[in-house]
């Protein structure tokens, strides 16, 4: 499967272990990544608050670049914040032909030959795993089942709401996909209070204490539920839950030691890659130091 690949800004900056893990996992899943190296930031919703047309123009440019990738079946991202922000932009662009024409006219002045045509399919890796590869095929590719690994799913905000914009319905229960993928990889899903709540990152510059309290509360809830780790489809969630975890521990006034894995890292472990290949040592809370890998994950490929 060939996809126009939008890694986003954060995976190539603050969380390079995510970008590297996706590159390592893709061939094991039969995915050919064609990186959109010329694409700009999605704006993460912030630009749209001040200038929606600027945000839409930036994202229309990314969409147009994706549509130029010959043979690509869709555009794929590995950041649920990008998914949410781009879905909002796409809703405006696809819903108004005159507006899209105006945005394309702006694009033509800066990038001759670029034009976005309504209807691009843009999917987060999580959606692609379930809807394009399929859970049965994913199970077939597992060589090291995550036996006895207790995983707490953490969706974050942008990939589960609003339902209408993200096409979450009875036919596509995308707010259950993370649980399904964990189970397909052989792991045990842990239910806890923070699964669908905000990680706190969006308010970190406005009210850091409240942001850290949100993150610390979710981490503590997962620990109380006896999760071995959390898995996230969003690098911004990873920043607040892993990078800020020592500070969050002070705010909630209790020790925290909860590893937080990127989705491609969890996939990589089940597909036979070693922790070093997935840069697990780059995390603030080292998964290899907290999880009993000998007992929680099958130590050798089946």
UniProtKB/TrEMBL annotation:
InterPro entries: Cys_rich_dom (IPR004017), HdrB/HdrD_reductase (IPR051278)
Natural source organism: Conexibacter stalactiti
Cysteine-rich domain span: 3-84, 154-242
Gene3D superfamilies: 1.20.1050.140, 3.40.50.11810
Pfam families to which the protein is assigned, alphabetical: CCG (PF02754)
Keywords, sorted A to Z: Oxidoreductase
Full protein name: CoB--CoM heterodisulfide reductase iron-sulfur subunit B family protein
């Amino acid at each position: 499967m060939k996809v126009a690949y939008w890694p986003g800004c954060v995976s190539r900056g603050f969380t390079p272990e995510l970008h590297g893990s996706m590159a390592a996992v893709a061939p094991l899943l039969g995915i050919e990544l064609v990186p959109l190296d010329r694409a700009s930031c999605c704006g993460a919703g912030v630009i749209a608050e001040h200038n929606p047309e600027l945000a839409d123009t930036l994202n229309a440019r990314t969409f147009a670049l994706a549509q130029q990738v010959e043979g690509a079946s869709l555009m794929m991202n590995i950041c649920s914040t990008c998914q949410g922000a781009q879905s909002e932009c796409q809703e405006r662009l696809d819903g108004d032909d005159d507006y899209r024409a105006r945005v394309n006219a702006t694009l033509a002045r800066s990038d001759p030959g670029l034009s976005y045509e309504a209807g691009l399919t843009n999917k987060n890796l999580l959606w692609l795993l379930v809807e394009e590869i399929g859970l049965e095929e994913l199970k077939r590719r597992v060589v090291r089942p995550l036996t006895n690994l207790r995983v707490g799913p953490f969706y974050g905000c942008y990939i589960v709401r609003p339902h209408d914009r993200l096409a979450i319905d009875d036919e596509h229960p995308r707010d259950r996909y993370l649980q399904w993928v964990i189970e397909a990889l052989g792991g045990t899903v842990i239910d806890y209070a923070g699964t669908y709540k905000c990680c706190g990152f969006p308010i970190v510059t406005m009210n850091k204490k409240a942001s850290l309290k949100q993150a610390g509360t979710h981490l503590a809830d997962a620990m109380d539920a006896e999760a071995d780790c959390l898995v996230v489809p969003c690098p911004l969630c990873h920043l607040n839950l892993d990078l800020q975890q020592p500070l969050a521990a002070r705010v909630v006034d209790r020790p925290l030691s909860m590893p937080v894995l990127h989705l491609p890292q969890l996939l990589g472990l089940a597909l036979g890659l070693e922790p070093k290949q997935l840069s697990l040592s780059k995390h603030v809370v080292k998964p290899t130091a907290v999880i009993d890998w000998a007992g929680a994950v099958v130590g050798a490929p089946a």
